[in-house]
């Protein structure tokens, strides 16, 4: 359940493959140069202060951002929902096991089966977003999420819990794609990167909310924390426009211009941006269709090796395993599960915000090295605490080592893909630390591989 960096994806061509040719026509929009000339002819004092700039081009950021910010606020409710789904199982284990009568292995299935639904949702999300549109796809995911949460709330046995968890997984799989794509498609270039990071921030906020509130309420009451963002998303979508890029892609000219004008402000000249969007879509359509075999061409091998390698190693690092079973891990280490999950919930949001600020300044490679090294250290300390517990060594240090290890792990590691936690906790964490160490070595060789390529 990795994060999609939509700001890069849209620039790289993630516009969609929906049908319908978009005919390039001259938009009936206000042209700044013509207005400036009319102002000068009339001798208007506003001529010198035109908002179109010295070259007659409007500044998109200078236009109204109210609708962009409102639409982003609605969309990130889906990101918040993603986080609550991931964080739900950690603080609810004891309540569900006691009330429903699940065994440890059955609860392990309940926690990790979310990823099965997420994989199905991720596979179908692109087709849905291109066919139904960005708004309708988010609306569909919100409805699925509501059904998922209600299924969990009224569950009386393991199978019903599993069904609800799979529905929630499908919801998160769809939202993990369509939310960042929608945000990047509506945002002006100048603030696109900043708005795109809100997706990651709200995922962690949702997870933190589940951790903190889950320590205070019952597992059935915690369902409300997941229902609220679904309801807000479902209602809020009625008050925001559709993505102008998607409308242009399916050939809806009038709706495309109306949507883009609404996002940029009534007084903004959108003619240049509208032409760029349509030209870009036409250039994408003229490209030859790609095949899976093209990934294995020599010119693409470097990018494929780096991209797939990072995904594999990061998925083996165990971030979702800790997310799903945090309370159980703390309890096994003789530390308060509620206090541990609450501490993680508190540190996640500022750490994520700090990482977003550093990303463009320090570079991705440097942050990957730091986060992978921290993941190795955190998993090693946690595994060491369980080793001491099993051997009866330094028993007073076991809770402290586990707490420090998990906090270090969460403190430096960004959101990664799904993992699962096995029964042998000590060996599992040593495996996670080994995977993180391999990630460090892989990233360290990154530049050498690029030079050889």
TrEMBL record:
The family database entries (Pfam families) matched by this protein are listed as: Sugar_tr
The chain positions of domain Major facilitator superfamily (MFS) profile read 71-453
Q: Where is the composition biased (Basic and acidic residues)?
A: 34-43
Q: How does it sit in the membrane?
A: Multi-pass membrane protein
Stretches for region Disordered: 34-57
Q: Which GO terms describe its cellular component?
A: plasma membrane
Where mainly located? membrane
CDD domains noted in UniProt = MFS_GLUT6_8_Class3_like
Q: PROSITE patterns given for it?
A: MFS (PS50850), SUGAR_TRANSPORT_1 (PS00216)
Cellular compartment(s): Cell membrane
The protein's superkingdom reads Eukaryota
Keywords noted in UniProt: Cell membrane, Membrane, Sugar transport, Transmembrane, Transmembrane helix, Transport
Provide the transmembrane region boundaries: 102-124, 136-155, 167-187, 199-217, 223-240, 301-319, 339-359, 366-388, 400-417, 429-447
Q: Give the matching InterPro entries.
A: MFS_dom, MFS_ERD6/Tret1-like, MFS_sugar_transport-like, MFS_trans_sf, MFS_Trehalose_Transporter, Sugar_transporter_CS
Q: Name one GO molecular function term.
A: sugar transmembrane transporter activity
The entry's family comment says: Belongs to the major facilitator superfamily. Sugar transporter (TC 2.A.1.1) family.
The name this protein carries in UniProt is Major facilitator superfamily (MFS) profile domain-containing protein
State the organism of origin.
Answer: Miscanthus lutarioriparius
């Amino acid at each position: 359940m990795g994060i999609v960096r939509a700001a890069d994806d849209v620039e790289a061509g993630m516009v969609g493959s929906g049908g319908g040719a978009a005919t390039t026509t001259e938009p009936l929009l206000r042209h700044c140069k013509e207005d400036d000339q009319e102002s000068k002819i009339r001798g208007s004092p506003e001529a010198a202060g035109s908002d179109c700039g010295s070259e007659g081009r409007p500044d998109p950021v200078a236009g109204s951002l109210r609708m962009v910010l409102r639409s982003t606020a609605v969309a990130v409710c889906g990101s918040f929902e993603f986080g609550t789904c991931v964080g739900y199982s950690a603080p609810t284990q004891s309540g569900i096991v006691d009330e429903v009568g699940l065994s440890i292995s059955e609860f392990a299935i309940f926690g990790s089966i979310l990823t099965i639904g997420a994989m199905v949702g991720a596979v179908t999300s692109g087709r849905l977003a291109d066919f139904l549109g960005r708004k309708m796809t988010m609306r569909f995911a919100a409805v699925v999420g509501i059904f998922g949460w209600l299924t969990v709330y009224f569950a009386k046995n393991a199978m019903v819990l599993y069904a609800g968890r799979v529905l929630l997984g499908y919801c998160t799989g769809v939202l993990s794609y369509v939310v960042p794509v929608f945000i990047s498609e509506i945002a002006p270039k100048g603030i696109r990167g900043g708005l795109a990071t809100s997706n990651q921030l709200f995922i962690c906020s949702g997870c933190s909310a589940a951790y903190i509130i889950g320590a205070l309420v019952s597992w059935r009451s915690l369902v409300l924390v997941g229902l609220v963002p679904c309801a807000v998303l479902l209602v809020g979508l009625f008050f925001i426009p559709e993505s102008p890029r998607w409308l242009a892609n399916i050939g809806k000219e009038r709706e495309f211009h109306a949507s883009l004008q609404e996002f940029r402000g009534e007084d903004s000249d959108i003619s240049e941006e509208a032409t760029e969007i349509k030209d870009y879509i036409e250039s994408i359509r003229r490209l030859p269709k790609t095949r899976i075999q093209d990934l294995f061409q020599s010119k693409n091998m470097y990018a494929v090796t780096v991209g797939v390698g990072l995904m594999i190693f990061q998925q083996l690092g165990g971030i979702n395993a800790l997310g799903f079973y945090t309370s159980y891990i703390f309890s096994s280490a003789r530390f308060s599960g509620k206090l541990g999950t609450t501490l993680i919930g508190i540190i996640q949001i500022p750490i994520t915000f700090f990482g977003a600020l550093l990303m463009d300044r320090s570079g991705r490679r440097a942050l990957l090295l730091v986060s992978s090294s921290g993941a190795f250290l955190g998993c090693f300390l946690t595994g060491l605490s369980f080793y001491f517990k099993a051997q009866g060594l330094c028993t007073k240090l076991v809770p402290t080592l586990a707490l420090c290890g998990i906090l270090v792990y969460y403190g430096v590691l960004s959101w990664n893909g799904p993992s699962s936690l096995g029964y042998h906790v000590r060996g599992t964490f040593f495996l996670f630390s080994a995977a993180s160490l391999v990630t460090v070595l892989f990233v360290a060789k990154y530049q050498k591989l690029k030079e050889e390529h």
